[in-house]
Amino acid sequence: MVFLMVSYLFAGFLLISPLFVMAADADPIDDFCVADLKSPIILNGLVCVNPATVNGNTFAFTGFENAGNTGNSLGSAVTEGFAGVNYPALNTQGLALARLDYAPGGLVPPHTHPRATEVLYLVKGQLFVGFVDTNDKFYPAYLKAGDVFVFPRGLVHFQFNSGNTPAFAIAVLNSQNPGVQLIANALFGATPTIADAVLAKAFGIPASEVDIIKKGFGA
């Protein structure tokens, strides 16, 4: 009888368990795990340094003091604050940071973060931002200094400097490694290339135009 009750409970759990599945970083099991960026070991996360070598300064980050170089075709720059790049104290904390700089007219082009929600705080300037949901509804907003905007996890979004002066923002993402996929690059700059016929049909344009766009992405 007890076995049957346990079996029913287990079966019920299997039925409802998908409701509790969440795509997020695992919870840390220690107070902290400062990443050892010199370790050759590859795993789902980063190896920790010896806690005895850690002090208060380990948890400070000065990588956002200087503006990024916006002298490029997009007029924007992203400076990372990632556990595996330059901020090892973020290891296992489920967070990643970025400083974003925009020249007037600068654009962070449409992209997604498959593993994270992004919260953007505009420090200086003004931005036109927005995202598109899975029903193709567009949610735009104009931001001024001091405003905050949230881009939901995995949805296509962008930021554009709509002002006449440089802009500067800080982004916080709730994943140690949020991932980024630039939409245009993924489609027109993929390796090996996606067939022209596929992209022509998807965008309703001639294959000759697809080829021209691909060349712009080095494909």
From TrEMBL:
The keyword Metal-binding applies. The keyword Mitochondrion does not apply. Belongs to the germin family. Pfam families: Cupin_1. SUPFAM superfamilies: RmlC-like cupins (SSF51182). Residues 62-211 form the Cupin type-1 domain. This is Germin-like protein. It is found in: Secreted, Extracellular space, Apoplast. Keywords: Apoplast, Manganese, Metal-binding, Secreted, Signal. Residues 1-26 form the signal peptide.
